[in-house]
Design goal:
The chain has about 170 residues and is an alpha+beta fold. It has helices at about 5-10, 15, 70-80, 95-105, 110-115, 120-130, 150-155; strands at about 20-25, 35-40, 40-45, 50-55, 65. Strand 1 (about 20-25) and strand 2 form a beta hairpin.
């Protein structure tokens, strides 16, 4: 355990201190925090306010600000990510959205689109739901077979819109 950490911080960070794959460094800028490194990922953690933020090597934000206890951070960022796709939890950018629409129009499966975009099938369903203005809430992502497409969901009448899959979709709408 690093000896330079204040005792109270050692108690709060104990779950991280006991993981040999994690390094912890106290930093003072941009404000007093701890820089947590695990493999090629880095986060700033502010213990007093229970916040954390994923950052790059220059400590520039590359994610959203999160709130929660250290145990929540550990579970979400250290333990679970190995099971999650690389873009899980990240904002959709314009390119991702355009690729999504292209893949849907090509008839690619939800699972294939998720793999190509580094996201979960749930994320693909949510974004497609927003794009088409309909709900796929009653689709259980864990039961999606590998060949199911968004167009098939629409054709199966899961949404309140009929024949939307046959219409031309414009990205400028």
């Amino acid at each position: 355990m690093p000896s330079k950490l204040p005792k109270i911080d050692q108690l709060k960070l104990h779950i991280l201190l006991n993981d040999p794959s994690i390094t912890i460094k106290r930093v003072l800028k941009p404000s007093p925090a701890y820089l947590i490194s695990h493999h090629d990922q880095h986060w700033l953690i502010w213990l007093k306010s229970s916040k954390w933020l994923e950052v790059d090597n220059k400590r520039e934000s590359i994610g959203e600000l999160h709130y929660g206890e250290i145990s929540t951070f550990y579970q979400k960022c250290i333990e679970r990510p190995s099971k999650l796709p690389p873009n899980h939890g990240k904002k959709w950018n314009k390119d991702d959205t355009e690729f999504l629409y292209s893949y849907i129009s090509q008839g690619k499966s939800i699972v294939d689109i998720a793999d190509l975009l580094g996201r979960t099938p749930t994320s693909i369903l949510m974004k497609a739901s927003y794009f088409f203005g309909m709900s796929f809430d009653h689709v259980d992502p864990s039961s999606i077979d590998n060949d199911l497409t968004i167009v098939e969901l629409i054709d199966a009448g899961i949404s309140k819109y009929e024949n939307i899959a046959d219409e031309e979709v414009s990205l400028s709408d």
